[in-house]
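#onboarding

Welcome to the new folks! Below is a worked example of what a typical request in this channel looks like: someone posts a single protein sequence, and someone else replies with the predicted structure as tokens. Don't worry about understanding the tokens yet, we'll cover that in week two.

Example request:
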Amino acid sequence: MSSLGRTATKDPFTELRSDHGSLISLYVSRPSPGGFTALLTDLLRPIREAAATRSRTVEMSVRADADRIRRLADTFESESAPAYAVFASDADGVFIVEALTHEVADVARLGHRPYLRPLRTRPRDLRAGFIVADRLTARTFVVSGGVVTEIGETLQAEPVKRDYGGFEGNAETAARQRADENAAKLWKEAGQRLLESHQDRPLDYLALGAQSELLEGIARSLHPYLAQLPRVTFPAVPASVTETALRAEASSFDVEVRRNRQAALAGRVCDTAWSGGMAVLGLGPALAAANAQAIDSLVIAGSVVRPGVSCQSCGYLARTGDRCPVCGSDLAPTDDVVADLIEAVVAAGGTVQQIEVASPLDNDGVGALTRFPVTV
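Example response:
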């Protein structure tokens, strides 16, 4: 089976298998122009070397697939996707190419099952609500994955004469108060638009763009549901704000929000484990928890890779061993048992996050919140 040029929103590859162990999983991000041929060749070289030490079937399958994958270089060069995933096993009739919407680490693996870690650990796109306002106009946007969507037309406040030269005493005060009330009503209406969007599909954070002296008033106008979201601010005026500017602001804010969330999650896992709660720290305890299908949320510190063993029959995972203690089958070595751990957690209904911030979890590499106490 083969496909080329489709955009992947979720992986359809979980069920791929190779009884021979000849399944190539290859991920490649766009290099500098003209660089695909050399990059693919470099990634496939150790795969061919590994196949040469295995059965004749595996060796011939990998040779055919490697040649076919290298021939994709020109196609990749001519297309515009930021990255591609390739799954191939000539011996099993598998050849799938997927255009990805995000960059990935360049990596290739050979085995019985697909290597899906680059897909599983990709941070999800955050969804940000933007209000850009002054005292007379307001615009609302939702930004996610680099896509900027404006909600409705520009909102206009009821105008109030700003030249107070003809007003005296109470009349001038009343006019200023009316202008403040109209501005507050405008900002509340803008917030209502985002509230409806938030209720339809939750926002991850809010961004308020305005002159600095207006930000506090805009924040006070927010519905409590929006007010409790993480909030960032930036200088902007509605008349001149552009999609390019909003996209750049969102990209920067996304990094900040993700880092804060990752630090909080790592702290929660460590604090829970240290206090004797339902959490484990370390790869060995996490593997044991996964074998018991106990992991609710797996957290990985960076791109840690460790070898291990897995049972191809029942899915048992461990750092070392020859025979599965559950079903008695032979255990197969794996270069990245963390990737197998990720798949086990996902299959059992858990979530996975790979964090990039420095945290106490760095000492253990892997931690998890569990559904029930686990003895390790």
